[in-house]
User: Which sequence fits this backbone?
């Protein structure tokens, strides 16, 4: 079941901006191919939240497997810089709509699903 957070949306960066996007956050390490920065309409680009180059290459290689990718990415998110960026995004999502933007063809099988889960409200909050 997908995480339930009415304040967090996931969209492909190639889709036109929507008035209900709120804060648009690019969560890919690399700039999306073929997209001019002026056309992206992003508000934030926290590279500390993105999967490392090594993890990204492993996942897209012959041995890459989604469940293991998620486990490794969650471990990366525990690093101090990533954890601080995640906390900042979590606080933002508690106050306003946040749209996570990715160039991934299938966001549900990418790091954005992990981020969306991490941003879901926790019990007791």
Assistant:
């Amino acid at each position: 079941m997908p995480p339930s957070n009415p304040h967090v949306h996931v969209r492909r960066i190639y889709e036109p901006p929507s008035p209900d996007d709120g804060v648009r956050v690019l969560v890919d390490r690399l700039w999306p191919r073929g997209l001019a920065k002026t056309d992206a309409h992003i508000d934030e680009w926290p590279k500390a939240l993105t999967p490392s180059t090594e993890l990204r290459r492993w996942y897209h290689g012959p041995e890459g497997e989604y469940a293991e990718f998620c486990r490794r990415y969650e471990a990366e998110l525990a690093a101090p810089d990533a954890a601080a960026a995640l906390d900042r995004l979590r606080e933002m999502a508690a106050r306003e709509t946040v749209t996570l933007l990715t160039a991934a063809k299938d966001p549900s099988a990418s790091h954005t699903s992990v981020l969306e889960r991490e941003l879901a409200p926790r019990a007791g909050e």
